[in-house]
Design goal:
Structural class of chain B: alpha+beta
Distance between the termini of chain A: 28 Å
Number of helices of chain A: 4
Largest sheet of chain A: 5 strands, mixed
CATH topology of chain A: Transcription Regulator spoIIAA
Radius of gyration of chain B: 41 Å
Largest interface: A-B, 22 and 28 residues
Number of strands of chain B: 22
Oligomer: heterodimer
Number of domains of chain A: 1
CATH class of chain A: Alpha Beta
Structural class of chain A: alpha/beta
Strand order of the largest sheet of chain A: 1-2-3-4-5
CATH class of the largest domain in chain B: Alpha Beta
Strand order of the largest sheet of chain B: 2-1-3-4-5
CATH topology of the largest domain in chain B: Phosphatase 2c, domain 1
Number of strands of chain A: 5
Helix content of chain A: 40-55%
CATH architecture of chain A: 2-Layer Sandwich
Helix content of chain B: 25-40%
Distance between the termini of chain B: 91 Å
Shape of chain B: rod-shaped
Chain lengths: ~110, ~525
């Protein structure tokens, strides 16, 4: 898994590529919490390059969502492949996040 | 060498007369004179002397006359000339004699000068005739040699199809259509052992007998070395070395050699300067195998060969071919080309290999039209079939999360090799990942290294996993299902894994055996009509 960070206006973008499982979920957790601790309220996780996610990855997204909820922030996901989307659906996670087709749509939608 | 003249006449004084007239030529060794009193004696002489050049015969003789002798001469089938000697004005007999094959005639009384001229003329005709016969014989011999070469080429190629009637995990067909002049294409296939199929195609430089012999040698060497179980690259290296040792004719051969693991679909291949084969995926996509380093065999004794591999999923087909296909020309000189071959292949996704090759050959013929085939057209096609036989795999891993990616790669490969649809592979991978993550993250109270064994078995439409660990006793199936309706801020961080496993797998079972946790989970995989599997 590789993590690429970017910022667009007040939206913090974290792009993840490859496999997200229990072995590297802590890396993503650190990256997301760093953004939140740094004042991010709008966090976009770009999943266009994400091939695989397990519940360990979902937990990290849930942790981030919970943390942002406390400061009225929001976590959005973009570019989900259908297999990744299926894992989110099975876990009942889809309603928790704002989902966008791709990064451009997401940035426009988040304002 | 003396010209042999057989003079047939019943007049007793003809012999001394002739010996007198031609004494100089006989003395100088130019002529050799033989005599007979009638047709019978003449035939007897011819039986004893088989290289008589010219027969001079009278017509009216006792016992067998000259006209009958002419008929008998024809029956002998010798290369000789007959000259008839008859009374002046005896036109009827002369005409009959000419019709019966007499080459010329002389009238009595014999004008010896005229006779000399006629004999010389006959000798010139005879020489031309004998040259023609010799050339004809040489031509026949050459044709015979080419026939033998063609027979060698054809007879050493396996030609019984289907070649392995008992096998339902692959099928193959091959053909070699020789050009008019014998070339040196060949194909070969054989089982190295129960699960390894050797596939070979080659093209020898040059034509005719030398090419046929070189081809036969290359094919035999390759097979005998391949059967020792060597890798494709090592095998080509050995064959090349042996071919270089004794290659006075400076010939060479391009060879593609691959070993198909019929269980996993893994194809390992090596090429000695041969056109890369094409892979027809069951989706209809056509891929050209990437090249491996290596030159034609028989040129450089120390040449090295590279090896590459590719996976053939069930229903994928591999086409080996020679440039007789792609370089077949139409009247305007346009090549059939790889592009046309790809198109012809792609429309045969669902064809068995025999009609597939038939269609390609037909396409080549349509392209060539009236243009004669200048090179052998050779193709071999193998297709993996989704076997009804079962398959198993055992993965042993350490209790370390870094092992998860390796396990996933093995499951991906196993699933692809056995035609499990990608979606089902993804779900099985997800379930296995969740189970292993739970064991590794929560199962052990110590810092020691432990071993986890994951066995998987695919068969009877079910993919079954058995995960065995020596962690503390824990039944993951006892965990309560999470409440997915809960507002997310109230949801517990955790407990999701087993929920996902329950959702993607069809059956789950936990048991504690011999101080080990054993979790068995399975998923239905249904076969599709095309031979693949659907999840």
């Amino acid at each position: 898994m590789t993590i690429t960070e970017a910022k667009h206006n007040d939206t913090f973008i974290v792009a993840i590529d490859g496999r997200l499982d229990a072995s590297n979920a802590p890396d993503l957790e650190r990256a997301l919490l760093k953004q939140i601790d740094g004042g991010a309220k709008k966090l976009l996780v770009d999943c266009a390059g994400l091939d695989y996610i397990s519940s360990a990855g979902l937990r990290v997204l849930l942790v981030a969502a919970k943390r942002l909820k406390t400061v009225d922030g929001t976590v959005a996901l973009s570019g989900l492949k259908h297999t990744v989307r299926e894992v989110l659906d099975i876990a009942g996670f889809s309603p928790i996040f704002r989902l966008f087709a791709d990064r451009t749509t997401a940035l426009a939608g988040l304002g | 060498m003396a010209v042999k003249l057989l003079i047939v006449d019943d007049e007793p004084d003809i012999e001394p007369l002739m010996r007198q007239k031609f004494r100089r030529q006989v003395r100088d060794g130019e002529y050799e004179l033989l005599f007979a009193r009638n047709g019978f004696e003449a035939l007897e002489q011819l039986r004893q002397v088989d290289d008589v050049d010219i027969v001079l015969t009278d017509i009216n003789m006792p016992e067998m006359d000259g006209l009958t002798l002419l008929v008998k001469l024809n029956e002998l089938g010798r290369v000789l000339k007959a000259i008839i000697v008859s009374a002046y004005g005896d036109m009827d007999n002369i005409r009959t004699a000419m019709n019966r094959g007499a080459a010329d005639f002389l009238t009595k009384p014999i004008d010896f000068q005229d006779m000399e001229v006629t004999v010389q003329k006959m000798l010139r005709e005879l020489e031309a005739l004998r040259n023609a016969v010799r050339e004809h014989d040489q031509l026949l011999a050459l044709r015979h040699e080419l026939d033998i070469a063609a027979q060698i080429q054809q007879s050493i190629l396996p030609a019984t199809f289907p070649p392995f009637p008992g096998r339902d995990d692959f099928e193959l067909y091959a053909t070699m259509i020789p050009a008019r002049e014998v070339g040196g294409d060949f194909y070969d296939f054989f089982l190295i052992d129960d699960t390894h199929l050797a596939l070979v195609i080659g093209d020898v430089s040059g034509k005719g007998m030398p090419a046929a012999i070189f081809m036969s040698m290359s094919r035999t060497l390759l097979k005998s070395i391949a059967l020792q179980g060597m890798s494709p690259a090592d095998c080509l290296q050995h064959v090349n070395h042996l071919l270089c040792l004794d290659n006075a004719a400076e010939m060479f051969v391009t060879i593609f050699y691959a070993i198909l693991d019929t269980e996993s679909g893994r194809l390992r291949y090596s090429s000695g300067g041969h056109n890369p084969p094409m892979l027809l995926r069951r989706s209809g996509e056509v891929e050209t195998l990437s090249r491996t380093p290596g030159v034609a065999l028989g040129v450089l004794p120390e040449a090295a060969y590279g090896v590459k591999e590719v996976i053939l999923a069930p229903d994928d087909a591999l086409l080996l071919y020679t440039d007789g296909i792609t370089e077949a020309m139409d009247a305007a000189g346009n090549l059939f080309s790889e592009a046309r071959l790809q198109i012809a292949l792609a429309r045969n996704v669902t064809s068995a290999t025999e009609p597939l090759i038939g269609d390609i050959v037909a396409a080549v013929r349509v392209h060539a039209g009236e243009t004669p085939q200048s090179d052998d057209v050779t193709a071999l096609c193998v297709r993996r079939l989704a076997s009804t036989a079962s398959a198993t795999m055992t993965i042993t891993l350490r209790n370390d999360l870094s092992e998860l990616a390796r396990v996933a790669a093995l499951i991906d490969e196993f699933g692809e090799a056995h035609g499990v649809p990608a979606h089902a592979v993804f779900e099985c991978n997800l379930a296995l990942d969740e189970v292993l993550t739970n064991i590794i993250s929560h199962g052990y109270g110590d810092e020691a290294t432990h071993e986890i064994i994951a066995r998987c078995h695919l068969g009877d439409g079910t993919w079954r996993f058995e995960i065995e660990d020596d962690a503390r006793p824990f039944n993951p199936l006892s965990a309560a299902a999470p409440d997915l309706q809960q507002p997310f801020e109230e949801r517990p961080i955790g407990g999701l894994g087993i929920h996902i496993v329950r959702r993607v797998m069809d059956e789950l079972e936990y048991k504690r055996e011999h101080d080990k946790n054993v979790l068995v989970m399975s998923k239905q995989i249904t076969r599709r009509e095309t031979g693949g599997l659907d999840g």
